[in-house]
Every structure is written in C-alpha cells, then in structure tokens.
C-alpha cells in the first residue's frame, strides 16, 4: 500500500486558538502514525493564494491519514481551528 502525504495550507486569523489546535492536533497525528516533514518554515509562493503556514505530514497510507482526520481526537483538535484560520487540506497518495 503506498504511503500518503497530508498537505495543509493555512491562513491564520487567531494565533491563540490556532496554537491550541496545533498543540492538540500534533498528539492526534502522531498517535495515528503521522510524521511531520514540513511544519511552517520558509517557502516560496509560485502560484495561487498565498498561505503563510504550510504543513506536510507523511502517513503509511491514504487510509491511515483519512482515519486520523476522522478520529475523535483530531476532530476535537480541529474545533479550535474553526474560525481561527482558513485552511486547504488534501491527502495525496505517493507514487513510489
């Protein structure tokens, strides 16, 4: 089964609430086998809408990433991001 990347682009409007989301989401993601490849840091926006916060997480499979997103732990964390950021999130299977 191919690995997958969870890719999130965020435009944060409430740093405190989003910080709480990030803290709680980290535990949920790691508990589901996710490992952070990129989390914030330098970037170059080449096309599309600028997203100053970019995160890439590797999972063992697309299904594992989806299970993490759907989990009660992650959904609880996500409640802190609602209204605190505009986000685009996608899970992409890796073609090895």
Topology pattern, helix = H, strand = E: EHEEHHE
Radius of gyration: 13 Å
Strand content: 25-35%
Number of E-state strands: 4
Query: What's the rounded overall pLDDT mean?
Result: 96
CATH topology: Alpha-Beta Plaits
State the end-to-end distance.
Answer: 10 Å
Per DSSP, the total helix count is 3
Q: Percent helix among the residues?
A: 25-40%
Largest sheet entry: 4 strands, antiparallel
Gross morphology is globular
Structural class: alpha+beta
Q: What is the correct CATH architecture? A: 2-Layer Sandwich
Low-confidence stretches: none
User: Can you tell me the CATH class?
Assistant: Alpha Beta
**How are strands sequenced across the largest beta sheet?**
2-3-1-4
| Domain module tally | 1
